[in-house]
Amino acid sequence: MTDGGCILDKNWVSEMMKPFEDNKADVVGGIFFPLAKNVFDKSQGAVICKSLEEIDEKKFMPSSRSLGFKKKVWKDVDGYPKHEIGGEDTRFVLNIIEKGYKITITKKAIVYWRMRSLKSFIRQFYLYAKGEVRAGNLAFPRMRRVLIASIIFPIYFLSLFFTLLFFRVFFLFLFFVPVLYFIYQGIKVSRKVNDIRGFYYGFLFSFLKRFMYFSGIWAEILSRKKDMYRNENY
Hints:
Structural class: alpha+beta
Order of helices and strands: EHEHEHHEHHHH
Helix content: 40-55%
Radius of gyration: 19 Å
Largest sheet: 4 strands, mixed
Number of strands: 4
Number of domains: 1
Strand content: 5-15%
Oligomer: single chain
């Protein structure tokens, strides 16, 4: 299984098949890297894709960009949920984990993922988040950290407003802590792409990724028009 907008490494199929030999695996997850031609793409990729060294095979959650499974697994989890606006690939993998299937990760099965324009990047994570809510993904234990962060998101902005009115010193603290975090992300990205412009892009992409994602979650939770969205993949 792979996604549109992806380019497969020439050895991808053979590397994906190896763990299935002798029935040693039911599900195989490959990895994905950004297909980057400039600093903008490289910085975006550094924010949304883990490097080979950063991938922990025990914690890494594969994506449909690079995934393999037996037919029995597909049938057991009832395939992909086609009625969602997005998040169906995450739900599919979460269902696999929930059923107790072990996912074997192979770092040699590589897919290259095309990066997006800034406008498309913003829309992507906003719709990802809305799909997560619609698909019920946040209820899974594997998504607990995302759920906690989603709850903190509106509390943080309410705290900013409250402290701005009554406790200016605390407001400065609340304001600059995340700023310092995104500065740190910018430094990390600039080092990864080996270009000072990566600092700006790293700061920007890290901020937009989180802001649009959590905004999308709450927009979907509060929305009453549940049928106005359509999954572009179908």
